[in-house]
C-alpha cells in the first residue's frame, strides 16, 4: 500500500479546535471592548495568528502521510525535513476510540493505537475515520499481530477468528447514582456559576446588579431558604446529569486476549488493552467509597493507558464498582490473577516505628506557625494549639494506615494493601515484577521490621511500598523473587 493522507475532515476538526481557542479572545477584541486605544492592534495580531494557525493546520495535513502493511504502520511527517517512524503491530498494547458529539453529527469517530513508548513517538491517531474503517483497522492490526506470534500452520485459524466477547459488567442506574454522589460532581455547579459570573463581569460590569440581588435574597429568611433548597436540588440534578453523560452506557467486555471498555452518552469512549500487557491490578477506595461499599479497579499497563488523555480514564475498569463485584471481575477478566481474601496484619512493632518516625510536615508547619502566628478566622487560637491539632491528625493517620495495612505471598502472587482514610490493594505476579528493593535503618533493625518495594513496568515505572513487614517476611520475599528467573526461562 502506498503512502496516503488522513481524511480531509481532519482539517475541519483541527480548524474547529483553533476557533475554540480564539473564541473568547475575539469576543473581547471585537464585541465587548471596542473603545480601547490599542484594540486595533490587538485585532490585527489576533487575525494574523488565526490565519497562521489555519495555514499550519493545512500544511500539517498535506505533509503527514501513513501506510499499512502486514506487520506495521509507517508514518511520514514534516515539510522541509521528513521524519519517518515505524510502529510494528506487535508493539501495540492499547487501542482506544473517542467519539465526540461532533463526530456523531457526521457519523465518524477517532481511533488511537498506543505502544509502551513514551511521548507521541509510540502513538498513531486517526482524528476522523468512519466507524466501518475503524473496525477494519482494529481487526487488521489484531489479526496481523496474531500471525506474528503463531506458526505457519496456525495462520488459517487466525483468518477464521470470530470475535467472541463476554459481557462482565454493565452500569445500572443505581451505579450511576452512587457514582454521582461519590465523585462529588454535584459540588461543581456553584464553582461553575461563580466562574461564569466573573467571566461575564470581565466583559460586562454586572457586579452592582449581583450585589443588589444578593441583598434582596438575604433580606428575607424564607427567600434565602428557598434559594438554598433550589441550589441543593439543582446541584444534585447537575451532578447526576454530568455523571450520566460521562459514565452512561458503561460496559466491560473481554475475550481470550483483550479487555474492552466502552462508556459515554454524548462523547463515546471505547478502549481495549491486551491482557498480556497488564502488569498489576489495584483496588482503591476513598473514604466515601468505603462508606458506600464501592471500589475502583485499576489496571497497571506496560503502555500508556489513554495516551495522557485524562478524560478517558482508560486504566480503570470502572471507578464506582460495587465492592462485591470487584474481586469477581478480576477473576473473570484476568483468570491468570488470583486474589487472596485472607491477608496478614503488620506486627505491633510496625506501629511503634511509625509513631517514632519524625514528621517533617509537622516540624515545618510548627516553625511557620511560631513565626507567623496566624489569626485563623479571627478566633485567636494560639499557635501551639494549632500545632498540637496537626500532630494529633498526623498520628491518627499513621495509626489508621497501620491498621489498614495488609500483606501476603500467594504462590506466584504478592498482594499489598496500604492507606489510612483511602486504601489501595495492589496485586501483581512475580514474572511482572522487574525489580525489588528491601530497606532497613537502625530503628527497623532493632524492631525486626523492614520496608519492601516492588517495581513494575508502567508509564511511569510503578513503585509499590510496604513499610513495617516482619523480618521473616523480608527473607521470604527475597526467596520468592529469586524464583522469577526460572519462570522467565520457562516462558522463553
UniProtKB/TrEMBL annotation:
The chain crosses the membrane at residues 12-32, 38-59, 176-200, 220-241, 351-371, 383-403. Keywords: Membrane, Transmembrane, Transmembrane helix. Signal peptide: none annotated. Residues 61-141, 250-330, 402-461 form the YdbS-like PH domain. This is PH domain-containing protein. InterPro entries: UCP026631, YdbS-like_PH. It comes from the Bacteria.
